[in-house]
Amino acid sequence: MIVGLLGCGIVGKSVLQIASKKEDIKIKRILVRTLRDDHRMTTDFMDILHDQDIDTIIEVMGGLHPAYEYISMSLKAKKNVVTANKAVAAAYFDELNQLALDNNVSFMIEACVGGGIPWIKELKRVSRFDEITSISGIFNGTTNYILSNMHAYDADFDVMIKDAQNKGYAESDPSADLEGYDIVNKLALSVDVAFQTFLNPSSIPVFGISTIKKEDIAYFKSKGWTCKLMAFAQKYQNSISAFCMPTLIKDEISSQINANLNLATATSQFLGTIQLIGQGAGGDPTASAVISDCYDIMTNLHYFDIHHSYPLNLSMTSYPFYIRLEKSVFHEELGISYEYDEKYVYIQTAKMTIIEIFKIIDRYRCNDFFAALIWR
Ligand SMILES: NC(=O)c1ccc[n+]([C@@H]2O[C@H](COP(=O)([O-])OP(=O)(O)OC[C@H]3O[C@@H](n4cnc5c(N)ncnc54)[C@H](OP(=O)(O)O)[C@@H]3O)[C@@H](O)[C@H]2O)c1
Fold first, then answer.
1. Catalytic annotation, pick one of 86, 186, 228, 235
2. Is the CB–ligand 1 distance for residue 84 below 6 Å?
3. Residue-by-residue pLDDT tens, the chain, 376 positions
4. For ligand 1, is residue 279 a contact (CB within 6 Å)?
5. DSSP H or E run through 340
6. What global pTM score does this model have?
7. Residue 8: CB within 6 Å of ligand 1?
8. Does the N terminus or the C terminus of the chain have fewer Cβ atoms within 10 A?
9. Does the beta carbon of 282 lie inside 6 Å of ligand 1?
């Protein structure tokens, strides 16, 4: 396999390192913005696109543009594409997958979800013969690291963000992780493969952890709950639900998934429930998923079967929720249980649908407010 590598950052460097030890994968050109001392580097994508030796593109630049244009051009030029870029893959999955199909090449996304965990392969394998009915998971190591340490050390949110940044677990602008947008892209791709449909990530309701406080964690601990930022999707007969929000759990495997680990759970008719745990990010685990996709391409062609079109339906299931609001803005009947301190009211609601809770979230989002799903 002769490869053109787009991007040479954390993941790109690990891909280079693993590939340098493999005789059957040769990285011929590397696209960068600033040339360094590697004769393979270029700043012009056309050098890679028009190189007839290159049969496979590994895209690890990130972002929507120009990643989308480069991937589209590569597939049209009959080059396989392997990407770790969940933002572009989730936003254009149906289109890019179809382009691969039309041009008889592969479009591979294993590294987009769960880092080194072989999750997408497993969903694809199971969905060929079994009906996957639900998926859920902890798909973001940064938020999991922050929440685990807030629980362990009764630490402030701001302190834990700085700690995560110092250790390299959080980016200098961590908002995509904290607001749940990174998870929504991963959930959309998981839904696409598991339910063989296309779900636009921008249609998935999401509430992240940027407003969580140590007062919330103290309340959770008093009730025996652990808080995790989780993604859920469920398949009904002719529709699907999908959402991402903080979730309160007791005695589940998910409550033991600490630090920057990821957990991915799928339930299907015959297989029952499977749970995969592993390093959800980092250069080497992600690059191992990229290289594993390259080996799959070398043994066969790969694209995904997308033949359903299920609408999003957020009113099929109901759950109880936790809400924390400042007493001064609280003036409506929301709950079945209320506790107060000097500043806040802590509420447990009756069961309500995802549509109903996101109406409340949207009403209070700008306030000093936090909400979480109570799983058990
Ligand atoms: N890091 C992880 O743990 C991880 C895990 C799973 C998935 N991913 C995904 O993998 C992708 C790469 O992540 P990363 O952490 O490796 O990012 P990164 O360290 O920021 O590296 C991105 C590289 O791409 C280059 N680049 C960006 N735009 C470019 C352009 N238009 N032309 C040429 N080069 C360009 C950057 O060059 P400059 O240095 O010149 O800016 C940089 O070297 C992202 O989509 C990310 O979501 C990352």
1. 186
2. yes
3. 999 999 999 999 999 999 999 999 999 999 999 999 899 999 999 999 999 999 999 999 999 999 999 999 999 999 999 999 999 999 999 999 999 999 999 999 999 999 999 999 999 999 999 999 999 999 999 999 999 999 999 999 999 999 999 988 888 899 999 999 999 999 999 999 999 999 999 999 999 999 999 999 999 999 999 999 999 999 999 999 999 999 999 978 888 898 889 999 999 999 999 999 999 888 999 999 999 999 999 998 677 989 899 999 999 999 999 999 999 988 778 888 999 999 999 999 999 999 999 999 999 988 899 999 999 7
4. no
5. strand 335-340
6. 0.95
7. yes
8. C
9. yes
Residue nearest to atom 21 of ligand 1 (CA): 9
What phi and psi values does residue 282 have, to the nearest 5 degrees? 100, 150
Cα(283) to centroid of ligand 1, in Å?
10
Region of residue 326 (phi > 0: left; psi between -120 and 50: alpha; otherwise: beta): beta
Tell whether domain 2-108 is in CATH 3.40.50.720.
Answer: yes
- CA distance linking residue 30 with residue 36, whole number of Å: 10
* Delimiting residues of CATH 3.40.50.720 domain(s) in the chain: 2-108
Q: Give catalytic status of residue 250 as yes or no.
A: no
For the Cβ of 244 lying below 6 angstroms from any atom of ligand 1, the answer is no
Helix (H, G, I), strand (E, B) or coil at 321: strand
- Cα 13 to ligand 1 centre (Å): 10
For 120-283+310-374, CATH number? 3.30.360.10
| In contact, 327 and 34? CB cutoff 8 Å | no
Q: Where in the chain is the domain with CATH 3.30.360.10?
A: 120-283+310-374
User: What atom in ligand 1 is closest to the CA of residue 141?
Assistant: 3
